[in-house]
Amino acid sequence: MKRETTAKCLMASAMFIFGTLAPFVRNIDVSSGELALYRAVLAAALVGGFLLVTKQKISVVSLKKDLLLLLLSGAAMGINWILLFEAYKYTTVSVATLSYYFAPVIVMVVCPLFFKEKLTCKQIICFVMSTAGLVMITGTMGGGKQDLLGIAFGLGAATFYATVMLLNKFIKGATGLHRTFVQFLSAVVVLVIYVAFTSGFTLEKLDGIGWGALLIVGLVHTGITYCMYFSSLKELPGQKVAILSYIDPLVAVLVSVIWLNEGMTLPQIIGGILILGFTLWSELPTRKNK
Length: 290
Known about the structure:
It is built from 13 helices and no strands. By secondary structure, the chain is an all-alpha fold.
């Protein structure tokens, strides 16, 4: 019981930290691709150090079996970060986050194609209502093309995040932090190439605030929180993980409204409730499954 309570605290703390990402990202004056690269480098260094200190050896044999999937999922993770950071630039944090949290809906709809799962009546209702919530958000944006572009980037990030989730379902050998460490390394390789051919490396542009924000994003929001997340994951049932994971978007919305003074209209609030409420319901087991 004590271990589960500790795991709940770790999971809730990790989700809370994830939710405060956006204000730090906005204080880092580099391109989204470059920021994603530095985030991956710092996170890989911290997670690698954690595995070394805790003497968690990585099985090379198990990695070989899933190497291609790990590389693909790592690349998708890097692209996901780039698109999310771009979404923060063009629209409010709350709208970008709610668009991004459409990812579980994408997974729910795509799973029947890859895993021969049938869509239940409950899942169809969740898809329709979550989509209605997204329509309410996009249909009430007053910023015009800028906001719509931000939503598009948010949905693009959701698509690549859903890709990571789907690829992880096929990975059987590497688990937990070992999997994530290799994915970080893969993301670094892909992002180095991407940045070299696009924005280039401009770390010299950062001031003291920018450097501080970058270190917090890479070490705290990524490295430490991933360690907390995977340390607690094995101690908690899926239902509790699903519920606690929604601390992230709720905190992000509060940060947007209270910290960044970004308002939300009533239709946007209703749309957000529809997206988060029905995606959460879709992840909770029915009585029959229980």
